[in-house]
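User: Could you check the structure of this?
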Amino acid sequence: MWVVVCLVACCEKGSVEAAEEATYSVREFGAAGDGQTLDTDAINAAITECAANGGGIVLFPPGTYLTGSIRLKSNITLDIQKGATIRGASNDVQAYDPAEDNPYDEYQDYGHSHWHNSLIWGEELENVVIRGLGIIHGGGMTRSNDVPEGGGDKAIALKLCRKISIRDVTIREGGHFAILLSGCEDIEIDNIEIYTYRDGINLDCFTRKAVIKNSYIESVRYSDGVPAGGDDAIALKSSYALGRMEPSENITVQNCTIRAGTNGLQFGSETAGDFTDVNFSDITILGAEKAGIGITCNDGSIIDGVTYRNITMSNVATPIFIKIGARGRAPENRPVGQIRNITLTGITATDVYGYIKERKWASTIAGHPDRSVENVSLENVSIIYKGGGAKEWAEFEPPITDDYSPRHLGIRPSYGFYCRFVSGLEFHNVEVGFEEADLRPGLQIEHAESVELSEVTAERADESDALLVLKDVRDVNIHDCAALPDTTLDDVSETTF
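Assistant: Sure, the predicted structure tokens are below.
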């Protein structure tokens, strides 16, 4: 056993305190680290011994550690050194712990409902650290919901844990989820890199006090070096996997770069529990085949108080997608959910196109006939679309559907923003334009009330083309828009500017 001395300097007192933290090398417990020998038992023996002695560091020196399920314990730091790789065994080896029973399986995809069948897992723990400049590689884990007996489908899965730190590591091919944290609180994910085929980071089930920062997350599948699919980069969810619906709150994502095969920054689709106080800032999105910014409320949750600041996007099929549906994937007969108090400031999107599936959709804010989206404010927003829309597309009426993907609404009648069933909608200094002429209006707003537009501009192929269409809108205030007259309208059946 190694023993290290950690020196912690206290600048205010001008003193130095020394504390000893025991370090247990997995090599000393028999791990070969040769990439061929199954090191599961040796790794778990090191963790067990470390925890029995009050906790400390479980060290992975340089080498490749082929393993099945690693069972974390409280007060344990996994330190994966530079040159070290924890590699998941192939599923046919049957080295992973069996998935635990879950009576709530039917309410979310299989992967959300189980934690033990993972490469690294922990349950009801505290003070868990995963760190180092090494690599966690999913190896032979599956990406699908069909997990064979003895197989694994998640790189890191933590359930009902507190005080979690994941930092500096690189995760590759993380199975269904590279990181799944369910019902956890006091989370810091800092300076990590993820390259995976499906979801990057999922915070699920009443997450509290979480920070994701300074990280690169790429959830894209490649075929011969070309993007060919993938999944969500960062997803906030509230499934019924833990059998209760409590609010997720105080979540921050900042200073990250992401690339997604589906959604970049996403709420849902599992949305049974509520969300409040969620903040995204200083984020670059390099690709998203569905939405760069996505908020979907599908299962009765209330999503209240979300802020996006300084988000730059490119290569996204839909820059902004906000939608309420009534899928109701929860055991209780819940009413239609709500989305309210959403602020988007400093949003820039260019090259708006999904190159994998060749899709392009207008930004959309769509409530439900029984529940409007409430109080959405956009300020300093610039979106340049690919364009190419035909004039007859302006007659299209998107269906009312409980499906939650942008594609399910089909062609929008406007190229920039399509909004319906909204109450309290503000556009301030919002610009939409196109690379190729688009013959639809820039904006269309339907079934809405309390709408304010100021300094709004929309590029037109011809000066005679419509810029704005209003249908069944009440309490409209338009001012300081170069191509629109200053006007206040109490009740609009249908009008075009």
